Amino acid sequence: MNKIIDQILGLAKKKTDAAEVILVEGQESPVDFRSGKLHSVEHKEIKGAGLRVIKNGRIGFSSTTDFGKLQELVDHAEAGAAFGQQAAFKLPAGCKPGGVKTVDPKLEKFTTAQAVAEGNKALGILAKKAPELKCDIGLNKKFHRVSLANSRGFQGQYDKTSFSYGLSGVSIINGSLTFIGQDRRGGKLDLATSEMTARIVKMYDDAQRTAKLSSGKMPVLFAPEAMRLLWMSVAMGVNGKAEQKKTTPLLGRLGEKMLDPRITITDDPLLPLGLSSAPFDDEGVCGAKLELFHRGVFKNFIYDLQTAGILGKRSTGHGSRSFSTQPSPQVSNLVIAAGQTKLAQIIRNMDSGLILYDLLGAGQSNIAAGDFSVNIGLGYKVEKGKITGRVKDAMVAGNVYDMLKNRVLEISSETEDKGPYRTPAMLFDGMNVTAK
Question: What's the mean pLDDT when you consider all of the chain?
């Protein structure tokens, strides 16, 4: 791969002023079960190169999966520069990457046969304890190597593992189609089959009763699964592109208290075996922990090279891309500080309210501004600290920033990794709930 990078850079240097190459190679092994039966076992190869160039002050880009056509790759990138965006940056000459664990040896040894066995184990548990559920299961092991180099002398390479494991079931309960699921995604082998199936069975049992619900304002507990919607909005808000386009509610609010003082949010690209952990970003800028909010105070936007240059800032090491796309700012691993109270105790302390696990889409929402109005996919009513049944045909609405600043009642002491978010559950007061 180093020879290919050298060859691409050598060709590009003859025709452009600056060049950067990213190469990705690897494989993934998805195993899928559908409706309770093994559906497919696959092996997929991952291979591609992306070339970004600067010529006459403008950016050109091209990508390929055919390493026998490298001259075409260079020619297309050079041609694109004639119509490309004005470059507002210089490629980095180098950095000293921080130490970060990105490869799980246990996952490397995990075989397709073991994945099939784990899926069958989960199906066996669910068939016995939730027999009416028609279950789908997906396990996917992925390994890839990222190589990056540019014409200013930067050279870097790292290996990375990732693993996803999802269980989902569907059943008609009390005349209503009900979807129940659990998932895990991260950089390490996480065979939480017993825990995931136990949760699905509990949700399935609780859904056998339908709770009556009236519209109004009430406390709502967002489980870690549901918190993803809120953190997605925050991730959009801290993105330097949103600052550049003036589309974020955080514009001009650096140093201001924007969230509850119990909330600290850190972006950590060096999180051991995090889903998005890496020693440097996809532009060769070394990353480090970056506090986005400290005890509720807004501290930082995130930038890639181009966005930072346009705004007169420095890159924060958040340039993200695949080999076939140009970089843009993206959070890595968002780590939200845990609270002081066990989740089970928070539920026991609830006099009346809802627990939300699954929210259907973004609804009639402006997530970039923090506004949302979404259907409740899976939620339960709580009375006197106990779940009384599933709620149907209901919606919840609010503003993410208002919730996180003014409506936080409790934050759970446990956190869970939900994709790029390590999040606790949160209980909010006075949420707008609409029921038919």
Answer: 96
Scan for tokens 């490397």, then name that residue. 108
Task: Tell me if 322 sits within 8 A of 256, measured CB to CB.
Answer: no
* CA atoms of 61 and 20, how far apart (whole Å): 10
Q: Please, are residues 427 and 350 in contact by the beta-carbon 8 Å criterion?
A: yes
Entry field: residues in the chain: 436
CB atoms within 10 A of CB 40: 10
Cβ within 8 Å of residue 298, ≥6 positions away: 250, 253, 254, 255, 256, 257, 258, 259, 292
Residues 6 or more apart whose CB falls under 8 angstroms from that of 124 comprise none
Where do the structural domains in the chain lie, given as residue ranges? 2-202, 210-436
73, 62 in Cβ contact below 8 A?
yes
CA distance 31 to 142: 12
Q: What was the pLDDT predicted at 397?
A: 94
User: Of 393, 405, 404, nearest to 433 (Cα)?
Assistant: 393
- Statement: 2-202 belongs to CATH 3.40.350.10: no
How far apart (Å, rounded) are the C-alpha atoms in residues 391 and 5?
A: 56
pLDDT score recorded for residue 363: 58
CB-CB contact of 370 with 229 (8 Å): no
The model's pLDDT over 218-267, given as tens digits with 9 standing for 90+, comes to: 999 999 999 999 999 999 999 999 999 999 999 999 999 999 999 999 99
